[in-house]
Fold each of these.
Amino acid sequence: MTVLCVDFGGTEIKLGMLDDANILTSATLPNTGNEADLDAVRDAAFRMSTASESPIDAVGIAVPGVVDRKRGALVAAHDKYDWATGRDLRVWATETFDVPAVIENDARAALLGETTFGCAAGETDAVLVTLGTGIGTAALIDGVLLRGAHDHAGILGGHITVDIDGPVCNCGNTGCAEAIASTWALRRDAAADPVLAAALGTEAQHLGIKDLIAHADHPVVAPVLDRYLRAWGAAIVGVCHAYDPDVVIVSGGVMRSADVLLPRLTEYVHSHLWSSSFRPPLLTPDAPEHSVLLGLSAAAPRKDLP
């Protein structure tokens, strides 16, 4: 079965035609922030289907926010995808491609992908923390993705307060890990601090966490990266205390620098967990950019099922 998987990310849209874990073809589109992105996805999907000679049997869609799975709609993604909020994307996909569709939070999809096909395949108790434009989290307990009564459970680990005197987050909370250590937080801070911006050597609006890592030896940048690592570590400690996993998956494009980040994150987490807590290994996917696509392939409804 061929599944069209669409990952609406914070800065770009990733598409893939997948048969289970086999990526037949993939593409990346810019996120323009308006409804025209759906037209671009449609056109790209039909081109990919033709090029791979694979008809689309199902569609999986991931978005970076709270998803009401009963309505097939994005409920909230602060400062992201305003045009999609409240819209039933399953209906759009079904009408566009004439196949069944599923919509999922991107972190939950990534966790499903990595525990089904990826670096934690076969694990039934796991959490995922994805680092990038924001901080996404998800939890798998006894083999079941945690959702909660209102679809908010497990996915707001990036909005754990790690500094009660920290900046106000776009979610309305104070001192969230995401408000301290994310791409949008870095761009905010660099715009307000010309010394930091000069040290990073890139205009604030184009900065990414990769720029912190690339300039990690700079005396201005080093303490900023250290604060990011401590904020990420505190968020991971929080989800470990909440869900008691056997393994922690740390994903996101920034984890292409896992050799730099993962040892420091592991040290922080293991030294800050409750005294009797299990010290789970921290893993990172071989291809973190594909985690969401793999999860959507695993979650996709089958055409012959109701």
Amino acid sequence: MSGRLLRLVCTAAVAAGTVLAPLPAAAVPEPEPRERSVAELLTDLQGLYRQAEEATEAYNATEEKLKEKRAEVNRLDAALSEVRLSLHDSRGAAGRLARQQYQSSTDISPYVRLLLARDPQHALEQGHVIGQLARDRAKTMGRLTGTEHRADGLARKARKALDDQLTLAARQKKDRDAVRARLAGVEELLASLTAEQLARLAEFEEEGVEKAQRELTTSGALGEDARKPSKEGGKALRYARRQVGKPYEWGAEGPRTYDCSGLTSKAWAYAGTPIPRTSQEQWARLPRVPLKELRPGDLVIYFPKATHVAIYLGRGRVIEAPRTGEKIKVSPIAAHPLLGAVRPDGGDQAPATEATNAPAFSGS
């Protein structure tokens, strides 16, 4: 190739490169954020509700421990005041005896005093009195020493109980803040939804509960519904019925508002059978019964961590204090994932295994 042709090719190539060089890339618009499905929204919302309920149960448990610790502090303070009063009296008695001994002290031995006495019989009686006073003094000093030790012990226990109370009070505040944070998350999510989304959400949740209820009842897991409540169970159930329509409030035990375990614990206390305050303690400490043996008045426990509880009404229904923003109502037993059931007045019942085969709606 001649030099001139080579220069023309190079010039053309440069020109072509100049013309055909790619233009700067234009900014690509980011895709619109995908609208979450109703199922995803429901999962998020129910997760927040569950976290709020877990935090509520933690708060309730701390509150119960704090009540017990306050009672212990008051009891120890009263006992310490009584012991200090007794200690004051014992010290006064010891002082009087010491003065009496000092006033009657002498260097003459009792034997010589008896020989020199004008009335030996009187001297003997006086010696007996002095001996009795000495024995009384020994007893008084013994009581004084024992009371001092007891006062010291009670003072140490009272200080520790007070320290424990302060620790629990700090934990209670932390638990309360956790509940409020979870509920703020619920409110934030609900506020971000349109009226149409909220309506679809409620409809989707209801459909899920109905499906779970059908699966549970057709599976035969509940058994025949012919059992009658016990006398105590009937009273607890009547109490719960009267609360229907009252608002849910976390940490509340009535009489105007309740949370889930506040309702069940008050219902059974009304029946004369006190039970633990929290759903977790109710599940841990009360006799368990299989779902097939459920009778009205029994307690139905929900979620793997036993953070929700309702009272069985019969015919596959329960009375529950559901969650913040709702009221106490009658619900299908499968409204939440079932864990099992307990019977507060069923001490003769053997513990049952967890309701692992009982189908339940896994959302709420």
Amino acid sequence: MERAREELELDLGEFEVALQLAELRTVPTGAGRRKVPYAEVERLRAEEAFPQALRRRVAVVGSVDGSELIGISRDRFAKLAKGGLISPVRWYANRYRAVVWLYLADDVRRFARDHPGLLTGRLPADLREALAEGEDHRARSWRARRAAGFLRQAADGWSEAAVWAELLGPEATAQTVPDLYERTYLRRLRPGFPPGGTGSHAPREVVEATVVADHPDEIAAARARLTEALDRARAERAAPHPEPPPEPPPELSPGRRPEPPPGPQPEAQALPFAQEPPGRSAPPVGPASAQVPDPDPERRGWRRLLRRR
């Protein structure tokens, strides 16, 4: 990834937007990582007016620069974005922990070209009513755009299901996916919605409020898509499950000896100091002269010599 960014002469933010917009194709390399084929780098470098043309396609603007780009006020630009007419492509949290939305410059120009009537005069009545009720579609529009980018890169049904599980969050996912091992597998495959876009000042509650679906229609649609993706994923293969523990040996009743395994049994070997079985009395031990003589004459001679010494 780093070498591809250097070859394309993009900064880190421009490169992340290029990946998000699928300006250059990536391939998986295992362990959740991806790389850029060199053919993609050569294709972009061969374009006319490289790298200015590529930078223009991935350039982003805030609400101030975006309003100046199409000649409207910042307040009107914010109302159009809150109404879902201009979708943000990135976001970060500033030092005051407020979310700052960034928009694709080409999208802003395209909106001004396609909807010139919304740049001047009064806004439509339905849009004014929605804004008066406090509706704000910026986070929802960003989530939809981000999910669409990840779905284009999904390799199978499990990867697609992981995108919808990331959008729903852990609580709603647990209600839709009751199997613990399937949820664990989806967490391993989750793409991570805010890579490089949250900054260093975003608290956890701000991140969760931005990346997790909160609108009832959005949640219902994501659950339906998650269920469909899971049906396809289970048909492809099951989620990894741990190996079952080995069965314990059967318990023996007191006084019962274990039965030998089937098959030929090895011959019993005599132990060098075998004890007498219970119930049989040991032979009486008397003086040395009364003991049974050793049948080996050589050993008997050695014993006599040792006694004399």
Amino acid sequence: MTTEKRADSGRSIEIGEEAILKISKEVAIKFIEMGRITPATFDESFKNIHNTIRNTVGKE
């Protein structure tokens, strides 16, 4: 598992790929519950969610 160390206000945070996948899954589940993601749009939507989270934590 790869990790990323990021300094934020003097703190070091390690974010692994597994954590990014879990967060992406939780966001996708919430969108499904709200009706924003359907089976037809899941593939593209999940990729967008996952890429956005990866970019946010600095794992481009």
